Automatic annotation (TrEMBL):
Protein's name in the database: Fat-like cadherin-related tumor suppressor like protein
InterPro entries the UniProt entry points to: Cadherin-domain_protein, Cadherin-like_dom, Cadherin-like_sf, Cadherin_CS
Residues spanning the signal sequence: 1-22
Topology within the bilayer: Single-pass type I membrane protein
A GO term from the CC aspect: cell-cell junction
Molecular function via GO: calcium ion binding
Length: 1243
């Protein structure tokens, strides 16, 4: 039979081998139900197998399987689960059972007691810690696993925290027969988790810590972190840190071990702090029999002195330095540092600014650490090179680490010494002035500056040289140079004035400088040209060719330039045969002059004229030109070619004929002579009378005719030869025609008349006519052809008054002065000037046009009215003038801003000052007039706490002052005039700065930074743990603003907390309980022990058809925790077929049926719950279950951060929905927590 079964189903063995060859901890299971046929011995599978198991069919009997087994083959033999999770505490003693999460075992199909089910651990227990046991209750065989007894070693979670046991169940016939009968086997996996117990203490590594921090470390700054480790798990491994002794100086975070500073450090009070830090695990706090010994670590914190204070500089000024003085020390400086040791030593004091040229230095006045210094002057100082003085920047540096600096500004004011002479804008001024300039004509404005200040810079001018004639003077204050006398360029055209500028320093220190003013007196054609001779007489020979120079007329003009250019002309009325060169003055003939026929004497009027403007000046002279007769004519015979008879008997000496010659030249003497024909000397010719006479005996003359050629001469010229033809006759008789017979009694000759006598007569008549006196000879030259200066200039429409704005620009023409003079030319030419009344040199009049101009800056505030003496002069000789007074009124322009008597002011006022309290009265004045001087006050600074009266300028309190809101007011008060209306000039203003300091009154209570403080903290934190840091401020000053922290009397009496009165740090002073106040204490599940039933299984029965509420049975569990909430037990049905059919009374422990079924009962422990907002953390409970279900693991609640959208539950019903019990009690002072997190120190 056995062989048949084994051989008939070889595939079954292969499948079983493959199935059992897998890992016993496999998570894949197949549930299979086998059935066996009694007749055939076949085994079939009706369902999947949930866990590999062995099926053993014995071969030692010949009976059928059905006959040998009490357990039918068609029944499933398997564990309820392929894998079970169980737990057991470490260090458990022998016979300690593991606690499953659910019942472990095999459900039996038969209640036959002969079935023998055995469990044994096949693998996973190398150290033989565990033993499997079985216990059958009804149709279920429970698998129990416990620790073995007799083991030297125990479970140690830190060494191994998990065991995976492969458990095999086998079933055999338990009727006493051989065990080699057919057996069924099933396997399951049991995962044993070794639970931690608090068997280890925390250990520090290292055990000593050191840190060095500076004494200026900010409060709540992390200093160091101590670290302790505990190999336990969960709460047993969580460590709390605390100090062994109370201290207000430091705090240690109970969880992180970070040590922070909670009070300011002072090196001078304590340089080293030694702390002892304790480390305890949280499990020890709830261990029965008291806590374990804590681990300790030594913490040494050394305080390093730091340079807390910067040096303070105090300056004692000596009197102001006078420039160029030999002062050595300007100021004494004391430097103090409040630090101690090297940090309080002064390393140096230096000048780091304001003295680029190195005029000063700092020198120690004592020892190296005395802190006394002198500011010394190294070089002579010149105020003019540093007009604003010096602003030295001192830097004091200590020897601390890091070094600290402080700065101090030291102003150096240099008193002025009159060490600078006035300086002209130029060394040499060159200017031109017309010689016609009237007296008091402005010439030039001399600009002088003095680099000194005050009276040392006030300069007066005077002329010290070059003005011997007193032609000029200078306004000592304005520097305008004027004419003081009439100028004459012909007398002196150039002046070189030496003008001296003298400052008005103290006598003996005055400085002087000078400048040259070169004045060129410009000629204005005030002189007539003059001839060297006013009348001249010259001769000229007749018959000179045209263009012959007669004479050179010389004239000169004392003027210069074009005014001295002259030209000549002949100004005769009648035409004259002369002309004059216009430039050279040479008089020339225009034609040949003939003495005999033309005018023999000419009177020429020669005019000379200059080229001056606007009028030419002229002069005349008389030039007498006389024509000198020149022997330019030959004698001419009146008769020529005479023929006559001359008797021979004429005695010697008898006149034969008289020849007569005429010479047109005046005064010439004619002499006659025989040229030829008288070689024998028979005739004689009287040279004077021209009588030809017989000089020999004619009878002796052989020839009968004689030709005597005679001539006439004026000793220069000879007349043409005039032949006298004579017939010598012997008898006295008339010869008849053509000639007469001359005899010694006056015989006649026949001659040809030449007409000379007639021509002479005509010439003489013409000469007589030409030499009749002309009109040019009739008048004589007058002293002046242009008339005398008869009339005085007259003003036309002279203004009665002139008004001008003081803003008139230089060059503005105010009015044109008009005048007239009835004389002509220069006698009527007028020039204008201001003769007086212009003491500020601000007006000038154009000498030619009469325009009255502004030449200086007007200032009504300096002078409001002028009376100008306007004079007008003509240029005639003698010069005539007229004068009139012209009032000039300077009109006000809004050119002056109001000026405060005090532009800077500082006041103090109590913050309790009432509304309307006067602080200060501003007083501003305006130098203008009228509306331009009316001042209105206003407050420029935007504030509602003060106001200023617009009329009186009184600054007063307008609102409620609060120093804590604003302590210092920088008020800008504006004084504005009312000018500018109707003009382009805007209103002018000036500001005064008033500093009002509000004095403090202790009128404010301290105020916390937050209106309420909320913190969550575990109730098991160590004593002296920092719970919160509160921060309050008091805006008052001084003692009124110093804050001390303290708890209210109610909180103080409870004794749970204390607050550091200096820093506001709140610490616990004793262990907390869940029912705390204000500070929210999160409950920690302190019940270490879960509830335990008397037995892990209870069996009960009930009749069917019992009414609802029928009592079935009573179960009881115990809790080893102390009496109270942690030991109170509740019950609930958690699993099984009875859910919905049975109920259990949570208080009375009684089950009541709803229907008939077997329930599973679980006692449940209710933990108290805290009222928190809805938090992400879990709130769990310790549950004790029946042995068939196991025991759930525990988890301690953690402190969690409150979300921003948190909710508060004000009643128990709402809070229980979240497993939290709320208790709230309000505290009067502390309502919030400040710490590393937003809502709690441990968040």
């Amino acid at each position: 039979m056995k062989q048949r079964v084994l051989l008939a189903w070889p595939w079954l063995w292969l499948w079983l081998f493959a199935a059992t060859a897998g890992s016993p901890s496999s998570d894949t299971f197949v549930s299979t139900t086998f059935s066996s046929s009694a007749s055939s011995g076949s085994i079939s599978s009706s369902s999947s197998v949930t866990k590999p198991f062995s099926l053993i069919i014995p071969t030692s009997t010949s009976s059928s399987v059905q006959e040998d087994l009490a357990f039918p083959l068609n029944q499933d033999f398997r564990f309820t689960q392929p894998l079970y999770n169980v737990s057991i505490p470490e260090n458990s003693i022998g016979k300690t059972y593991v606690v499953p999460e659910q019942r472990m075992g095999i459900k039996l199909a038969s209640h036959d007691i002969n079935l023998d089910v055995r469990f044994r651990i096949m693998s996973g227990d190398r150290d033989k810690f565990f033993k499997a046991e079985e216990r059958t209750v009804g149709d279920f065989c429970f698998l129990l696993i416990r620790t073995r007894t007799g083991n030297v070693d125990v479970l140690n979670r830190e060494r191994k925290d998990r065991y995976v046991l492969e458990v095999r169940a086998s079933i055999s016939n338990g009727n006493g027969k051989s065990r080699s009968s057919t057996v069924l086997e099933a396997d399951t996996t049991v995962v044993v988790t070794v639970l931690d117990t608090n068997d280890l203490n925390p250990l520090f590594y290292p055990t000593e810590y050191e840190a060095t921090i500076t004494e200026d470390t900010p409060l709540h700054r992390n200093i160091l972190r101590v670290i302790a480790e505990d190999a336990d798990l969960g709460r047993n491994g969580e460590i709390y840190y605390s100090f062994a002794e109370e201290t207000d100086q430091f705090a240690v975070h109970p969880v992180s071990g970070v040590i922070t500073l909670t009070r300011p450090l002072r090196y001078s009070e304590r340089a080293t702090h030694e702390l002892m830090v304790l480390a305890k695990d949280r499990g020890a706090l709830f261990r029965s029999g008291g806590s374990s010994r804590p681990s300790t670590a030594k913490v040494t914190i050394r305080v390093r002195q730091v340079n807390l204070h910067s040096p303070e500089i105090y300056v004692h000024h000596l009197p102001d330095i006078v420039e160029h003085s030999n002062a050595d020390i300007y100021a004494i400086v004391r430097v103090v540092d409040q630090d101690e040791g090297v940090h309080g030593q002064i390393a140096s004091l230096d000048i780091v600014g304001g003295d680029p040229a190195g005029h000063f230095r700092v020198r120690s006045a004592g020892g190296s650490h005395s802190g006394e210094y002198n500011i010394e002057v190294l070089h002579l100082l010149d105020r003019e090179t540093a007009v604003q003085g010096y602003n030295l920047t001192l830097r004091a540096m200590d020897r601390g680490v890091p070094q600290r600096f402080s700065y101090k500004f030291v102003p150096v004011h240099l008193a002025d010494l009159n060490d600078n002479a006035p300086v002209f804008s130029r060394e040499i001024y060159e200017v031109k002035v017309p010689e016609t300039a009237p007296i008091n004509t402005p010439v030039i404005r001399l600009k002088v500056t003095d680099a000194d200040e005050g009276r040392n810079a006030l300069v007066f001018l005077e002329i010290v040289g070059g003005n011997e004639g007193g032609e000029f003077y200078v306004n000592a204050e304005t520097g305008v140079l004027y004419t003081s006398a009439s100028l004459d360029a012909e007398k002196k055209a150039f002046y070189t004035l030496t003008v001296s500028a003298v400052d008005q320093g103290n006598a003996g220190t005055r400085k002087q400088s000078s400048a040259k003013v070169k004045i060129n007196v410009v000629d204005t054609n005030d002189n007539d040209p003059t001839f060297e001779q006013s009348e001249m007489e010259v001769w000229i020979d007749e018959n000179e060719p045209a263009g012959t120079s007669v004479v050179k007329i010389t004239a000169k003009d004392r003027d210069s330039g074009e005014n001295a250019y002259i030209s000549y002309s002949i100004d005769n009325i009648q035409k004259v045969p002369f002309e004059i060169d216009h430039f050279s003055g040479i008089v020339r003939t225009r034609q040949v002059l003939d003495y005999e026929t033309m005018k023999r004497e000419y009177l020429l009027h020669v005019r000379v004229s200059d080229w001056g403007l606007p009028y030419r000046r002229q002069a005349e002279m008389q030039l007498h030109v006389k024509v000198r007769d020149v022997n330019d004519n030959r004698p001419q015979f009146e008769r020529i070619e005479c023929t006559g008879h001359v008797p021979r008997y004429l005695p010697i000496g008898s006149e034969v004929i008289t020849v007569s010659a005429i010479d047109f030249d005046a005064g010439n003497t004619i002499s006659y002579r025989i040229v030829s024909g008288n070689e024998d000397g028979c005739f004689a010719l009287d040279s004077a009378s021209g009588v030809l006479s017989v000089a020999c005996d004619l009878s002796d003359v052989k020839s009968t005719e004689r030709m005597v050629n005679v001539t006439a001469t004026d000793d220069t010229h000879f007349a043409d030869v005039n032949p006298v033809h004579m017939h010598l006759v012997n008898a006295k008789r008339n010869l008849g025609s053509p000639g007469r017979i001359l005899s010694d009694q006056g015989g006649a000759f026949e001659c040809r008349d030449t007409g000379v006598a007639r021509r002479l007569t005509e010439a003489m008549a013409s000469a007589e006519r030409n030499n009749i006196p002309s009109k040019d000879d009739e008048y004589t030259l007058t002293p002046s052809r242009y008339g005398e200066n008869i009339h005085t200039p007259e003003f036309i429409d002279f203004p009665s008054e002139i008004k001008v704005n003081e803003s008139a620009k230089v060059g503005t023409t105010l009015v044109r002065i008009r005048a007239r003079d009835r004389d002509l030319d220069y006698n009527g030419k007028l020039v204008f000037c201001i003769s007086g009344g212009d003491r500020d040199s601000v007006f000038g009049v154009d000498p030619d046009t009469g325009d009255l101009n502004v030449i200086g800056y007007l200032d009504r505030e300096r002078e409001s009215e002028y009376f100008l003496n306007i004079s007008v002069y003509d240029l005639g000789r003698p010069q005539k003038s007229s004068s009139r007074m012209l009032p000039v009124t300077i009109l006000d322009v809004n050119d002056n801003a109001p000026k405060f008597e005090r532009s800077l002011a500082s006041f103090r006022i109590s913050e309790t000052a009432l509304n309307g309290t006067n602080v200060w009265r501003a007083n501003a004045t305006d130098a203008d007039l009228g509306e331009n001087a009316r001042v209105t006050y206003s407050l420029v600074t935007e504030t509602n706490d003060f106001r200023v009266d617009p009329v009186t300028g009184v600054l007063s309190v307008f609102g409620r002052l609060d120093r804590e809101r604003q302590e210092i007011y920088e008020l800008r008060i504006r004084a504005q005039d009312n000018g500018g209306k109707g003009s382009d000039t805007p209103p002018l203003y000036s500001d005064a700065l008033v500093r009002v300091t509000v004095d403090d009154v202790n009128d404010n209570a301290p105020v916390f930074a937050l209106s309420s403080y909320t913190v969550k903290i575990r109730e098991d934190v160590p004593v002296w743990t920092v719970v919160a840091v509160v921060d309050a401020t008091d805006p008052d000053e001084g003692a009124g603003g110093d804050i001390e922290y303290f708890l209210s009397d109610a909180m103080e009496s409870e004794g749970y907390f204390k607050v550091d009165k200096v820093s506001g740090t709140i610490r616990t002073t004793q262990s907390l309980d869940f029912e705390m106040v204000i500070i929210e204490v999160v409950d920690v599940n302190e019940n270490l022990h879960p509830p335990v039933f008397d037995d892990f299984v209870v069996s009960a029965s009930v009749f069917e058809n019992q009414p609802v509420g029928t009592l079935v049975t009573t179960v009881r569990a115990k809790d080893a925790d102390p009496l109270g909430g942690d030991s109170r037990i509740g019950y609930t049905i958690r699993d099984g077929d009875g859910i919905g059919i049975f109920s259990i009374d949570n208080e009375e422990h009684i089950t009541r049926p709803f229907a008939v079924v077997s329930p599973t009962l679980i006692p449940k422990h209710q933990s108290p719950r805290l009222p928190v907002a809805e938090c992400p953390g879990d709130s769990e409970e310790l549950i004790a279950s029946s042995r068939e279900f196991g025991v759930s693991t525990e988890k301690i609640w953690e402190i969690t951060r409150i979300a921003e959208d948190s909710k508060c539950f004000r009643n128990l019903e709402d809070s229980l929905k979240f497993g939290i019990l709320w208790k709230f009690l309000k505290l009067p002072r502390f309502q919030a927590v400040r710490g590393p997190g937003a809502l709690g120190y441990f968040c």
